[in-house]
Amino acid sequence: MKPASLSRCLCELVLVFAGVTASEAAEIRHSFLATGAETKIVGEDGAIEWTYPHATRDGWVLAGGRTLLTVSKSSQFPNGVVVEVDRSGKTFFEFKGLQAEVNTAQRLVNGNTMLTEAGPKPRVLEVNPAGKIVVEFPIQCQLTNFHMQTRMARKLANGNYLVPHLLDKVVREYRADGKIAWEAPTPNWAFTGIRLASGNTLVGCTYGNVVVELDRSGKVVWQLSNNDLEGDPIKDACGVQRLANGNTVVTSYGIGESRRKLTEVTPDKQVVWTYTDASAHGIHHFQILTTNGKPEPEPALR
């Protein structure tokens, strides 16, 4: 057997053992929300279905079809803002930041919106639909660089809050009184903190160009880096999502024009889907919405 044929056969075998056939891998299609310098929803055919005219940091497509967005600071929004908008751009909810910037937002089951605010008094907030702050506590991180205090915080099913701290290189789980319930160091700036059903925590480590899965002791039990992939496609591993099928999608925020922006791998680190566009801007974070026409189960692990 020729080397190329042998390599192809081995690749197909790995995909089968990972629960994905070669034909299925070739046919994977996703639609997704992308946030960053460009805010957009991309269809499974690669066509742009919707755009929002502001740069964003985080975002979710909600069950009713509206989109919750954390809008980057600008002349119009000097401290950042969280908005809920429909496809026409009409705003249904708005909470303006009160410090340096707002870096994340999450719509909770009770209808409140959880967000983090960076500044001299970094904090986690929950805001009710009327815009009133109903939960507030400080987070423990460095105070010299507000922009690098935290990113994708999430409220957990146990009522605690998982908060990645970039320059501190740590992920912390806070109780609602602000006390630390758990923490683990990360190999580089922690951008994304995702609590998995197993109890492990998946972390995107930005400039480390690595994604790590940590157990409760902080031990790395799985990781993905350019050492596992051809062509060094990961550059600034910001947003990450663990799909329902166990695959992991990671963005390359700093990859640049006409290069791969999103990469999906199996647990065995086989690439089964990628997204490339001509934009010079990377994708800050994203939400995979559908796979081959079927919605990704909620809640999205991202």
Structural write-up:
It is a single chain. The protein is mainly beta. It has one domain: Neuraminidase (6 Propeller), CATH 2.120.10.30. The chain contains 2 helices and 25 strands. The chain has helices spanning 3-17, 22-27, and strands at residues 30-36, 39-42, 48-52, 56-61, 67-71, 81-85, 91-96, 101-107, 113-118, 123-127, 133-138, 154-155, 161-165, 170-174, 180-185, 192-195, 201-204, 210-214, 220-225, 240-242, 248-251, 260-265, 271-276, 283-291, 294-295. The strands form 6 sheets. A 5-stranded antiparallel beta sheet has the order 3-2-1-24-25, with no helix packed on it. Strands 4-5-6-7 form a 4-stranded antiparallel beta sheet, with no helix packed on it. β10 (123-127) and β11 form a beta hairpin. The protein is globular, with a radius of gyration of 19 Å. The protein starts with a helix and ends in a 7-residue tail after the last strand. Residues 1-25 have low confidence and may be disordered.
Total strand segments: 25
The count of domains is: 1
CATH class: Mainly Beta
Report the helical percentage: under 10%
CATH superfamily membership, which one?
Answer: TolB, C-terminal domain
Structural class: mainly beta
Report the total helices: 2
Biggest sheet architecture: 5 strands, antiparallel
